[in-house]
TrEMBL record:
<comment type="similarity">
    <text>Belongs to the D-isomer specific 2-hydroxyacid dehydrogenase family.</text>
</comment>
<dbReference type="InterPro" id="IPR050857">
    <property type="entry name" value="D-2-hydroxyacid_DH"/>
</dbReference>
<dbReference type="GO" id="GO:0016616">
    <property type="term" value="F:oxidoreductase activity, acting on the CH-OH group of donors, NAD or NADP as acceptor"/>
</dbReference>
<dbReference type="Pfam" id="PF02826">
    <property type="entry name" value="2-Hacid_dh_C"/>
</dbReference>
<dbReference type="InterPro" id="IPR006139">
    <property type="entry name" value="D-isomer_2_OHA_DH_cat_dom"/>
</dbReference>
<dbReference type="InterPro" id="IPR006140">
    <property type="entry name" value="D-isomer_DH_NAD-bd"/>
</dbReference>
<feature type="domain" description="D-isomer specific 2-hydroxyacid dehydrogenase NAD-binding">
    <location>
        <begin position="129"/>
        <end position="293"/>
    </location>
</feature>
<protein>
    <submittedName>
        <fullName>D-3-phosphoglycerate dehydrogenase</fullName>
    </submittedName>
</protein>
<dbReference type="InterPro" id="IPR036291">
    <property type="entry name" value="NAD(P)-bd_dom_sf"/>
</dbReference>
<keyword id="KW-0560">Oxidoreductase</keyword>
<dbReference type="GO" id="GO:0051287">
    <property type="term" value="F:NAD binding"/>
</dbReference>
<keyword id="KW-0520">NAD</keyword>
<feature type="domain" description="D-isomer specific 2-hydroxyacid dehydrogenase catalytic">
    <location>
        <begin position="5"/>
        <end position="317"/>
    </location>
</feature>
<dbReference type="Pfam" id="PF00389">
    <property type="entry name" value="2-Hacid_dh"/>
</dbReference>
Length: 317
């Protein structure tokens, strides 16, 4: 059986699929040539990340396809229900990247409280001429230890972020209307484990009590953080969005940063992705990354292996 991994797959995934007897093709076929390629090569399984689109027309035109796999979480680029109705299996790897996204949140948070996002912009320009002035400008850092992290959306990534926060000595509170209670196990390098029990608070309570808010909700119809929510946050708080562009109202966010209500914000995802607004990109109080939450070697390895396991059990099981 043939697997086309059109947006790439880790070597560990290729190895696991080959060991299970699959032929793995990692050629990147252009979207408009995909139909012809799949049909000419009798592809059984098409694996994608976020780049390749798997729409109704492609599904209809490629009768050899039995399975569509998404390495990662969001499946906006796949007509999932249509494919399932046509009898195809549609799989993803929801758990593989949680720890990587959580660590990126903390990269932004630790960078934020010590102004690294701004220092890294200004040191190359003025570090030589104005070292003393920059040292003074970035002197009032704060520690994360002892502060409160408010997590909105306490699923896989929200809980993985809580683990890092607990390890860093933070208090964690969360709000998730669909997850009343949760237990988070923090495991250490030597096998020790500590379990923490949590209960969901209202969104308002989290907004009012947290020093830092991080969002881990799925795409929504309405903003999760807009002007009214920003107003409820503590003065000098900070906001991280590594969930989805569109869950934060970016215009309201800029206002909150400009007025000094928020100390800083960190964005890995953007309302107008893949062309974020210049006002966001140029803002001196925003720590930026180009949607790389899941982009670690470890997550890609786990994604490849998780896909290979699922494909083997579905197509060969
Ligand atoms: N930055 C990245 O590269 C990256 C990588 C992977 C996933 N993500 C995104 O992270 C988000 C979370 O992923 P996950 O795997 O943790 O999903 P998940 O389904 O495990 O958790 C989402 C949680 O959000 C809760 N929720 C839904 N609506 C809510 C609301 N309005 N308020 C509060 N909670 C709400 C759900 O009950 C659920 O517990 C998704 O949007 C996903 O697309 C980003």
């Amino acid at each position: 059986m043939k697997v086309l991994a059109n947006d790439g797959i880790s070597q560990s995934g290729v190895d696991a699929l080959k060991a299970a007897g699959f032929e793995v093709i990692t050629t990147k076929v252009a979207q408009e040539q995909l139909e012809t390629y799949i049909n000419e090569n009798n592809i059984d399984a098409l694996l994608v990340r976020s780049a390749t689109k798997v729409r109704k027309e492609l599904i209809d035109a490629c009768p050899s396809l039995k399975l569509i796999g998404r390495g990662g979480v969001g499946m906006d680029n796949i007509d999932v229900q249509y494919a399932k109705d046509k009898g195809l299996s549609v799989i993803n790897t929801p758990a593989s990247s949680s720890a990587s996204v959580a660590e990126l949140v903390f990269a932004h948070l630790y960078g934020g409280v010590r102004f690294l996002y701004d220092a890294n912009r200004n040191m190359p320009l003025e570090g030589e001429a104005k070292f003393g002035a920059l040292k003074k400008a970035y002197a009032k850092g704060v520690e994360l230890r002892g502060k409160t992290l408010g997590v909105i959306g306490f699923g896989r990534i929200g809980q993985a972020t809580a683990k890092v926060a607990l390890g860093a000595g933070m208090k964690v509170i969360y709000s998730d209307p669909y997850m009343e209670k949760a237990e988070v196990k923090v495991d250490f390098f030597d096998g020790q484990e500590v379990s923490f029990k949590f209960e969901s608070k209202s969104k308002d309570e989290v907004l009012q009590e947290a020093d830092f808010i991080t969002l881990h909700v799925p795409a929504q119809k309405e903003y999760v953080i807009g002007k009214p929510e920003l107003e409820k946050m503590k003065d000098g708080a900070a906001l991280v969005n590594a969930a989805r562009g569109g869950v934060v109202d970016e215009i309201a966010l800029i206002d909150a940063l400009d007025s000094g209500k928020l100390a800083f914000a960190a964005l890995d995802v953007f309302e107008s992705e893949p062309k974020p607004e210049l006002k966001i990109l140029m803002h001196s109080k925003i720590s930026l990354s180009p949607h790389i939450g899941a982009a670690t070697n470890e997550a890609q390895d786990r994604i490849g292996i998780e896909l290979a396991d699922q494909i083997s059990s579905i197509l060969k099981g």
